[in-house]
Sequence to fold (71 residues):
Amino acid sequence: MTGLALTERVRVIKVTDSRTGQAHRVTEDAAVMGQRPGCYRAVCGELVLAASLTIPERGSCRGCQQWWAAR
Ligand SMILES: [Zn+2]
Fold:
């Protein structure tokens, strides 16, 4: 091995829900496996419809924040 340690930390992206404007966190795995383009399962369990990048973010999802803080 090269001595490069694999980090345990899951890579997470922020996705803003187009319906609520709330920012959720989606793991990269979930993003790749999205059933439909632009539709992701957030770490809080919500199904998120990705908004266009121009939509203003109206706060972060509580469930996702707690998940993130617990890591
Ligand atoms: Zn969430």
User: Anything to note?
Assistant: The two ends are 27 Å apart (CA to CA). Strands lie at 12-16, 23-27, 39-41, 47-49. The chain has one domain: 12-69.
